[in-house]
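Notes from hallway chat w/ T.B., transcribed later so I don't forget. T.B. wanted the structure written out for a chain they're using in a teaching module, and asked if we could keep both sequence and structure tokens in one place. Agreed to drop them here.
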Amino acid sequence: MNVQLRWDVFCHVVDNLGDIGVSWRLARQLAAEHQQQVRLFLDDFKAFAHICPQVDLRAAQQTLAGVQIVPWASQQQATPGDVVIEMFGCRLADAFIAQIARAPVQPVWINLEHLSAEPWVDLHHLKPSPQPGGVMKFFYFPGFTDKTGGLLREADLIRRRDDWQMQPSARRIAMRTLGLPPPPEHALTVLLFSYARQRLDGWLHTMASSERPVALWVCPGPVMTAINAWLDMQLQIGQITSRGSLTLYALPYVPQERFDELLWAADVCIVRGEDSFVRAQWAAKPFVWHIYPQEDSAHDRKLDAFLDRYLDGTDSALRDTVIHFWTAWNRGLDLSPAWIDWVDGLPALQRHAQHWARRLQGRTDLASQLVADVRHLADTRPSLTATR
């Protein structure tokens, strides 16, 4: 019988959708698949509403998908649960930390870090970090090896993806759900969910001049500035415009389930941050990761570490194609030459994406591994309050 614990998950929204995207998926899976009591503390309900439109912005607290949603400030008076999860090192209120220290049995306190493929992650996963007052906190790293916490993946995700893609009209349904007309069946579809980026003109012009029609699905965000500059117009949400062979669709914000379907429907996925980065891998589609830039260039090492793992065992042609385009995208270089090679290599890129997704499926998902690890840590605290 499952042991039901009370989980407090804290998300300080930094990158608008990335942090809350991961936190919301994790909270829902803990509640739905593992029957845990989950309370999600958020500091930006408006950002949350972009991916969960049913949230009530005026409610002091509410329950969605079995998860209790509460404002960030409410931790000042909250009693800690059995498990406390700091998402990405967010800083808890001093009053809440004091409550942790005073608890008769201290909660299992975890700092769930950002995803990385760097080798040092294996060495630091689940390491304790003593805090003032004798409180212990544990570092927890998602990752790509059995020595990490794994990746977020719902139990039925792969089946839902495969069933959805088997529908002949899946792509048409995905667009009509958003109130937009579907692209031609033979068009190359590209989903663009990127950070701000300069020098898109050459890439857009190359697509506009191609023999094959291209449908560019542009998600809301800072990249729209460069798109509008090339178009010499303000493309509004829900609007469509064409230049030569290129048709641009300004997508609205969508719930996470709809976003997954867009990834499944696209031929190429250009994604950013962490949540869409992982979901693009589960989509088993050729993708480009626009990594969050950092001042000390730590993102370059992080990007190289993932590419080394992702491309391990591939032939030199595929490896060169991926590195060329990913490097051009992340360093703000002219994309045209790398894009031409990318399109030519799409069949091989698609086969590799499917192979990579199958490899990842062999590892335990993050939520399941986290539940197991928390229970192991809880076993060292025999008086931990739990209900069965």
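Follow-up for T.B.: The first strand starts at residue 6 and ends at 11. Might be a good example for the class.
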